[in-house]
Amino acid sequence: MKIALLGYGKMGRIIEQFALDRGHEIVLKIDENNVDQKNSENLRLADVAIDFSTPHSVISNIESCFEAGLPLVVGTTGWYDRIPEMKNKCEESNNSLLYASNFSVGVNVFFFVNEVLAKIMNRYPQYDVLVEEIHHTQKLDSPSGTAITIAEGVLDGLDRKKEWVNELVGNGEEVVTKPDQLLIESHRIEDVPGTHTVVYSSEVDDIEFKHKAHGRAGFALGAVLAAEWLQGKKGFYSVKDMFDFNI
Ligand SMILES: NC(=O)C1=CN([C@@H]2O[C@H](COP(=O)(O)OP(=O)(O)OC[C@H]3O[C@@H](n4cnc5c(N)ncnc54)[C@H](O)[C@@H]3O)[C@@H](O)[C@H]2O)C=CC1
Ligand SMILES: O=C(O)C1=N[C@H](C(=O)O)C[C@H](O)C1
């Protein structure tokens, strides 16, 4: 495949390596210094675009790919309030987009088991629950996209929680949660690629369910596999459509 990389930072560079290893070609690289080259003529040189840019630029990148008729894989987080609108635009214009808050196999297994665990915990009201995420200090969005997906999984399964709220620890604002609110606690620590934990706590014990990324390789390989999976498909997909964990 011929790939256009939208965003050529920490993730874009690792994705390039995995794509080349798998026999693909990079035909366009866009970052904040050459956004003027992101036009339909250049985008149409590619078979697929992979966006790991910024919450601020991702919507414009999606719209440029739709205009060019270019299938798009989106790993960028921090835009999920616009999903319904982008889904409509994608379907109306007969385009294809696949997005994921996290492309790693391990996290997607985690998402599945997290939903099962939340349903089990309906039977045990003595446990409260919180989601904790830790990322590097350059991260622009909080909570992480992965933590939002995890929180949505808990809210889907656990009847006593109705909405999530976020506290960015250390920014001076402590959040007081109501019993039906699920706290997502965000921590920013130098060089941490991504750690997510769901903690159920009772008076007598804690249950901790944790995923810890050792680096960015799992995210990057997953994004290239998603671009391969998207070839020949039309419509708006999430990474859930790629995996089948049903047992
Ligand atoms: N879904 C997943 O599996 C993962 C998602 N991410 C997400 O990917 C995004 C990027 O992460 P990193 O690579 O760590 O960030 P980074 O800050 O290292 O790279 C961002 C890149 O976007 C570029 N950029 C800025 N404005 C742009 C524009 N208008 N058009 C195109 N590119 C533009 C910057 O120049 C830079 O090259 C973040 O939203 C992060 O949360 C990160 C890791 C895994
Ligand atoms: O910004 C990052 O680095 C990451 N972002 C994604 C997120 O917001 O969940 C995925 C991963 O945790 C790394």
Helix content: 25-40%
Overall shape: it is elongated
Number of helices: 7
Structural class call reads alpha/beta
Oligomer state of the chains in this structure: single chain
CATH topology of the largest domain: Rossmann fold
Strand portion: 25-35%
* The named CATH superfamily of the largest domain: NAD(P)-binding Rossmann-like Domain
Describe the structure.
- GO terms for molecular function: 4-hydroxy-tetrahydrodipicolinate reductase.
- It is found in: Cytoplasm.
- It is a single chain.
- The chain starts with a strand and ends in a 9-residue tail after the last strand.
- It is α/β, with parallel strands linked by helices.
- The chain is elongated and about 60 Å long.
- The model has no long low-confidence stretch (mean pLDDT 97).
- It has helices spanning 10-21, 40-43, 58-68, 83-92, 105-120, 145-157, 217-230, and strands at 2-6, 25-30, 48-51, 72-74, 96-99, 128-135, 163-168, 181-188, 195-201, 206-212, 235-238.
- Strands 2-1-3-4-5-11 form a 6-stranded parallel beta sheet, with helices on both faces.
- Ligand LZUJQKHR binds next to α6.
Summarize the structure.
It catalyses: (S)-2,3,4,5-tetrahydrodipicolinate + NADP(+) + H2O = (2S,4S)-4-hydroxy-2,3,4,5-tetrahydrodipicolinate + NADPH + H(+); (S)-2,3,4,5-tetrahydrodipicolinate + NAD(+) + H2O = (2S,4S)-4-hydroxy-2,3,4,5-tetrahydrodipicolinate + NADH + H(+). By secondary structure, the chain is of the alpha/beta class.
Please specify the SSE layout and strand pairing:
Layout: E1 2-6, H1 10-21, E2 25-30, H2 40-43, E3 48-51, H3 58-68, E4 72-74, H4 83-92, E5 96-99, H5 105-120, E6 128-135, H6 145-157, E7 163-168, E8 181-188, E9 195-201, E10 206-212, H7 217-230, E11 235-238
Parallel strand pairs: 1-2, 1-3, 3-4, 4-5, 5-11, 6-8, 7-8
Antiparallel strand pairs: 6-9, 9-10
Helix pairs in contact: 1-7, 5-6
Protein name: 4-hydroxy-tetrahydrodipicolinate reductase
Subunit structure: Homotetramer.
Domain Dihydrodipicolinate reductase C-terminal: 106-242
